[in-house]
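Inputs:
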Amino acid sequence: MRFKFLVPICLLLLSAFTASTIYKLNYPAYFPTPVYDFKKNPLADKKITLGRVLFYDPILSKDNTISCASCHSSFNAFAHTDHALSHGIKDLIGSRNAPALMNLAWHKTFMWDGAINHLDVQALAPISHPKEMGEKIEAVIAKLNQTKLYKNLFYAAFGDSLITGEKVLKALSQFQLTLISANSKYDKVKSGKEKFTEQEKKGYALFQKNCNACHIEPLFSNFDFANNGLPVDTTLNDFGKWMITKQSADSLKFKIPSLRNLSYTYPYMHDGRFSKLNQVLNHYSNGIKQGPTLANELKNPIKLSADEKVDLIAFLLTLNDLDFVFNPKFRYPKEILLTSEGKQN
Amino acid sequence: MKKVYLLFIAIFILINFAFSQNKGLAIKFVPMYGTVKVEQGKKYFSTANNDSLSIETFRFYISNITLLKNGKVVYHSKSNCYLIDIEKRLELEIKQKNLVFDAIKFNVGVDSTTNVSGAMGGDLDPMNGMYWAWQSGYINFKLEGTSKVCKTRNNIFQFHIGGYQSPNATLQTINLPAKNNSIIEINVALDQFLNGIDLKNANEIMSPGENAVKLAKLYQTIFSVQE
């Protein structure tokens, strides 16, 4: 009889342990040390799951129509394919192209203009932007606190069902931190599992000569800001980092994006002006607009013959990571979001 | 029986003693408009603009509270940030007992390290309406209200003062003499702040920059200890 009591106690202990199951982030040894401070937000399975549910749930938007995934689709390496400028609630169109989300633990700042200084607080921007999700974080928290599903998920993740801004943001970070793209052909070559073709090798040499100063291996960006010589689109008048700092030295500087998964993340550039890779290469070879803040690396045009462009693109395509794009762990959590009763509240 | 009595008396005395010793120090902020305490929505008269105004929201962060005696630090709150809010909390408690001091020093605002450290909880939770979403950083000082001189929608004036990066950092340090009582009452002269602004032309300052720095320097002067 006495053992009858032991069973629930053991179960309770077990659940306490599973609640804090530590998640080990896997990335290749040749990746640098992450910038994100995991000590302040240690990854745990249930927090990642919660973050994934929040990422896919339009409850974050004012009219419950737009989720993070609306503009950051897993099948497009978490970019917004085919939309030069992304759209939010009520089909309102924003002013920039939704960037791909991958290897975020290595990013120093966020957004095309660097307005955000930490991954944890990034989500506040799209949630509150009137043309994206258009909702106040306070209102999001109030909505979540009224939903049984989330009371349960937060309890499982944090051992406390009270939902706060800090918990929402940290859970969203946790899911996004797991979005690691490190299994492209390039990575397989790096780890000795595959070999480049002759053409890819030539392209790799061209890449190292012309692109690697800013799009540094193995993340294919140094995540700094640069003016890459794009003429200003006068319908947008977007001056990038200057919009935030108001320092003339920052005029027309935008965050340097990673070149991983280019096949899934088109259109390219902060305003999505190029839909094809060869348009991008043509820009670098003969479209550069000179100006006081132009990157030093681009002051002399990059000379590429037609054949070299083809070779370079062949190399760039080795940065596509199918395992990343089709990872079922990154997809819509239908087992939670579709079956729950809490959603009907 | 006698022993039990004695025991009870002893416990009673002990508890009493414990409670009497439990009195820490309270720091109380008193938003003032001239000689009267500020109440939300009440009309006040602005001498600078010759018109009435009302205050709807008033919040600010306090951090790095230090108590000094003859210039020496006797208490330091480390890096804790407290949100002072006319609607919710105007008083802070310092639990440490028997402090002997003659001055108080504190920051108005959130330090730069905290500003770049990701999502925080409690008083620093972004759901408190003191965090900018479009650009990372805390709002250090928020004052909102209405005045007919503001030709804005609903005659609103809004001052959301923040910014942690130089040259537009707005963190302010306040040094005040303080009597060694169990409560330090600090007046916050909102009339002095609002009369120092040309409300007609400057009524919506909500981003880091030169104007925010000017206003931060202005509110640096509005704190004083009640005699």
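Chain B has four helices and 14 strands. Flag for discussion at group meeting.
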